[in-house]
């Protein structure tokens, strides 16, 4: 972390914003090792490998998920294919066999949202549940003051992976924290960004209320690719593998549940977009669609590819948004403003 981060931090125990800082090791970019002490309640937060540790007494579901994230890096005792420096530096433009275009969809969603966010140089952006922080790195490349948080610091899955990017010349902050208890001052960020992350919280209302408070006036909440389920979804199948095998906290919420939570948190000017990942799947027909009947998928693909790029398609997407979200697994792709 850098000393600039002190202007953003707050103690998660007493909410005070004043810290004493002890620097044990520093390099040309940041403080690598040290200690922050809350001046009011004396709670101590360690700084290790540049990461400020704000995960204090985590709940059981968090400790289970941390364990699962560590174990999930291995398959049959070996690190899995995606757990490599080379792959992480290429994220999200990577491919994984048998994943139904998961990464291709991730990239399509991210790139499309980047085009809509109107990020500006020096904007402060908080990337919540950033994992190995490839998205935070992109914001830093654009010139933003970017801050990644995640519960995990483990290399490849968590925040220590940031060192791969930092070696290449960008800089962004990393904080180990629980999204249910974010350690930031009121009105400190221009953007708060969740990429496929919000649903990992069991308390989305609480998380979004905090996001609202932490955002500056005119700041934007951005949700990318949050999974939802509809009337015909098999709710229990969503995230089953990672939930059962790795104790990952995979919650499923309805599309309208997200919408309500965003509105109740205080946001106005809320825009939902047709998810680019779904558009990509339907127009290419390449990746198949987990949980969707093959014939239905083929039929949709034929219609989609014929109409791609026409005004009819634009209208279809607008008309289809709500029924699709109501009926089926649909991703929440949204920008909401704190006015
Ligand atoms: Zn304190």
Structural features, described:
With 339 residues, the protein is an alpha/beta fold. The protein folds into 2 domains: 53 residues, no CATH class; 279 residues, Rossmann fold. The strands form 2 sheets. Strands 1, 2, 3, 4, 7, 8, 9, 10, 11, 12, 13 and 14 form a 12-stranded mixed beta sheet that branches. Strands 5-6 form a two-stranded antiparallel ribbon. Strand 2 and strand 3 form a beta hairpin. Helix 6 crosses helix 8. The radius of gyration is 20 Å and the shape is globular. The site of zinc ion has 8 residues, from loops.
Give a concise summary:
The protein has 339 residues and is an alpha/beta fold. 34% of the residues lie in helices and 23% in strands.
Q: How helix-rich are the residues, as a percent range?
A: 25-40%
| H/E series | EEEEHEEHHEHEHEEHEHEHEHHHE
* Envelope shape: globular
Strand percentage lies at 15-25%
| Termini Cα gap | 30 Å
- What number is the mean pLDDT? 90
Poorly predicted runs of 5 or more residues: none
**Number of spatially distinct domains:** 2
What is the CATH T-level topology of the largest domain? Rossmann fold
- Classified by CATH, the class of the largest domain is Alpha Beta
Give the cofactors and ligands. Answer: zinc ion
Largest sheet: 12 strands, mixed
Radius of gyration: 20 Å
With helices defined by DSSP (H or I, 4 residues minimum), what is the helix count? Answer: 11
Output the structural class.
Answer: alpha/beta
CATH superfamily of the largest domain: Vaccinia Virus protein VP39
* Count of distinct strands: 14
CATH second-level architecture of the largest domain = 3-Layer(aba) Sandwich
């Amino acid at each position: 972390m850098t000393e600039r981060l002190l202007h953003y931090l707050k103690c998660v125990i007493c909410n005070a914003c004043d810290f004493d800082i002890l620097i044990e090791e520093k390099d040309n970019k940041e403080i690598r090792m040290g200690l922050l002490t809350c001046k009011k309640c004396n709670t101590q937060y360690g700084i290790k490998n540049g990461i400020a540790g704000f995960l204090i007494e985590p709940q059981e579901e968090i400790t289970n998920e941390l364990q699962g994230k560590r174990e999930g890096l291995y398959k049959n005792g070996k690190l899995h294919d995606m757990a490599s420096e080379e792959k992480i530096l290429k994220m999200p433009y990577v491919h994984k066999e048998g994943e139904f275009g998961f990464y291709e969809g991730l990239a399509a969603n991210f790139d499309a949202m980047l085009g809509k966010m109107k990020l500006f140089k020096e904007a402060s952006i908080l990337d919540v549940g950033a994992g190995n922080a490839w998205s935070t790195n992109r914001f830093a490349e654009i010139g933003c003051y970017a801050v990644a948080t995640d519960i995990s610091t483990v290399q490849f899955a968590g925040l220590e992976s940031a060192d791969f990017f930092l070696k290449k010349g960008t800089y962004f902050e990393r904080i180990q924290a629980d999204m249910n208890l974010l350690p930031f001052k009121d009105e400190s960020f221009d953007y708060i960004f969740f990429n496929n992350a919000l649903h990992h919280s069991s308390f989305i209302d609480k998380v979004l209320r905090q996001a609202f408070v932490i955002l500056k006036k005119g700041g934007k909440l951005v949700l990318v690719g949050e999974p939802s389920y509809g009337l015909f979804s098999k709710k229990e199948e969503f995230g089953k593998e990672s939930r059962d095998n790795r104790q990952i906290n995979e919650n499923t919420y309805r599309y309208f549940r997200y919408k309500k939570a965003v509105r109740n948190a205080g946001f106005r000017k809320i825009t939902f977009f047709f998810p680019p990942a779904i558009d990509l799947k339907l127009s290419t027909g390449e990746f198949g669609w987990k949980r969707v009947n093959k014939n239905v998928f083929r039929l949709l693909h034929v219609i989609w590819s014929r109409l791609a790029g026409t005004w009819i398609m634009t209208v279809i997407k607008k008309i289809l948004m709500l029924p699709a979200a109501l009926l089926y697994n649909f991703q929440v792709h949204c920008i909401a403003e704190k006015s």
